[in-house]
Write a structure and sequence with these properties.
Blueprint (H helix, E strand, L loop, with lengths): L3 E6 L14 E2 L2 E2 L1 H11 L4 E6 L3 H9 L2 E4 L27 H10 L5 E5 L8 H13 L4 E8 L4 E2 L2 E2 L16 E12 H10 L13 E5 L11 H15 L6 E2 L5 E2 L3
Parallel strand pairs: 1-4, 1-6, 4-5, 7-11
Antiparallel strand pairs: 2-3, 6-10, 7-10, 8-9, 12-13
């Protein structure tokens, strides 16, 4: 049976929401929601926080997770890695290639590694379980949670999802599958081999040829990049904590629980 490790990156130095990974959201440090969801999913053999900063080691212990200390030159504010994707040269690294490689080669020997974003705290345990089951059973080299968007879309003013000759209902349009990064997974050996080849002519290491996508609920796809998104997510977490069951009323007296 394949082994799977969860890795939750918690890098310091975010700018749009400063140091968001040490914010208290509804009274809890942000990454605690992702740790809890990973543990409750029963999908992983081990769950890690991955950071260059020791402040997260105590948080990992408190939340019942393991801690992997990333060397500063592999990602974050002081990354020194150079690959075909990026030459960081001490600038803040905004790709995941470098710290994923460091974790895969020094932190775990699991068959698969899933990156679970601390900034997507609405991701549910049952979604995580289904994602991992599908990834492993499909033997994908890389696997991505996506948000499906059904809308007329243009790229460089040219239609991508529709014909401009006629109008179709939105629900009949083939969706664009947008990678949301709430959760993504890789076959560890395939990733390491692709990273080390560093071949500009091949796909990878993040987007290797045997790849798949896994649509998730748009609420679970939310990622805290801005203060307005954080505000929305915290209100949802407050409602979930209080077991608030939202019901909707119609003008004819009917009610529904919605989706």
């Amino acid at each position: 049976m394949a082994t799977v490790a969860a890795m939750i990156p918690v890098l310091l130095g975010s700018t749009r929401v400063p140091d968001k990974n040490i914010l208290l959201v509804d009274g809890r440090v942000l990454c605690s929601y992702s740790i809890e969801a990973c543990k409750e999913s029963k999908a992983f053999n081990e769950v890690y926080l991955n950071s260059e900063d020791g402040v997260f080691e105590d948080i990992a212990k408190q939340e019942g997770a393991k801690f992997h200390r990333r060397r500063p030159e592999f990602g974050g504010r002081q990354c020194q890695q150079k690959t075909k994707s990026r030459d960081c040269a001490g600038n803040r690294c905004v790709t995941n290639e470098h710290y994923l490689y460091h974790f895969m080669t020094t932190g775990t020997d699991a068959d698969y590694v899933c990156q679970v974003n601390a900034t997507s705290p609405l991701l549910k345990p049952e979604t995580i379980q289904a994602f991992v089951d599908t990834m492993v059973s499909g033997e994908y080299d890389c696997f991505f949670a996506t948000e499906e968007v059904r809308a007329e879309s243009f790229y460089e003013e040219k239609p991508v999802t529709h014909s401009c000759k006629f109008k179709r209902p939105s629900n009949e349009i083939e969706p664009i599958q947008v990678v949301c990064w709430s959760i993504a997974g890789w076959k560890r050996e395939s990733y390491i081999a692709s990273y080390e080849r560093d071949d500009i002519n091949e796909d990878g290491p993040v987007f290797m040829p045997k790849r798949g996508v896994f649509p998730i609920d748009e609420r679970e796809a939310l990622d805290i990049d801005t203060w307005p998104t954080l505000d929305v997510i915290e209100k949802y977490l407050v409602a979930r904590r209080s077991n608030e069951q939202r019901s909707w009323k119609y003008i004819d007296g009917r009610t529904t629980q919605g989706g």
